[in-house]
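Hi everyone,

Forwarding the result from last night's run.
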Amino acid sequence: MARAKFERNKPHVNIGTIGHVDHGKTTLTAAITTTLSVLGQSKARKYDEIDAAPEEKARGITINTAHVEYETENRHYAHVDCPGHADYVKNMITGAAQMDGGILVVSAADGPMPQTREHILLARQVGVPNLVVFLNKEDMVDDEELLELVELEVRELLSLYDFPGDDIPIVKGSALRALEKVGAAPTTKRGEDPWVDKIYELMDAVDSYIPTPERDIDKPFLMAVEDVFSITGRGTVATGRIERGKVKIGETVELVGLADTRSTTVTGLEMFQKSLEEGMAGDNIGILLRGIQKTDIERGMVIAKPKSITPHTNFESEVYILKKEEGGRHTPFFSGYRPQFYVRTTDVTGTIAAFTADDGSQPEMVMPGDRIKMTVELIQPIAIEQGMRFAIREGGRTVGAGVVSKILK
């Protein structure tokens, strides 16, 4: 059977549902797909299908994630929903399902809860740029003032973590009521049921408030070097996968990381043993570089558009440490611990200078299964930027995953 072709006739955006356990994230995901399926461009997905999220691996870590897709009139969405709280933490830190925006689900009956706070904090730290709020279970609250109070609390919490709490759209509704209605009457259109209309109202807010992300191909060129070899009479070739942007023959690029940054010119591009005029994001290519010896370049460096990325050694990060059952450490570690940090294509040794808990306290040790804020100092400078993902390894096995939240030097 031929596979259906992915049509790119609408802008594509990656989003996800976040929020406290049992506040209705998965029910909302089901309600959105079922409601929008009436427009004919989305497949209705049942709660059980979404909840039975398959396991997948990202940076050596097993995560349960459900991926659904749907379309509004303006956009195509890929939506991620996780069954368990630990899966959210792992997902957001590894970037397994990159989110351009999130729908924060808060139960109007309970108001913000500990995981509501934690997910907002994580969204801020790992760089989920925009959030829209769905105040769920509105049918369980009779008191209008109570609803207003919960909305106020949510806005204050968002502002506390540097989101624009006053401007973020908050839509009230009931995912369950909408799902029940569309389940009973699958052809329910907009304007025929108040609960279903709330789902459309939420998607209007997502459509208008979460901006379309810049595509990888439009960003400044960057390729992490995987391998280097010499071609007699032609020079040195570096191979790797282009992470973002595009590159043409004759352009000036910089080699960044592990040594002093230096400029060079691209004299040739090859892909599948054929020469290429231009390489772009996603391509696995070889780049021929003018005046560069094989000893000048090594795995772990990046080749990038001049001045677009700089080498650093010290940064703050948000990290998840694997449990023993996930193949991680069996014992805790202390400040001064020196593992390897696997960044893009290489391991660099680094010292963990300090760790900080969410409440600002400094714990004495970190246990397997913990999420922690960590200050790292690498022994060699490499190309690092905010929002970049990395793995923490010990003797080749992954013991943690992290994301750079702030560059220090």
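The longest strand covers residues 371-383.

Cheers,
N.
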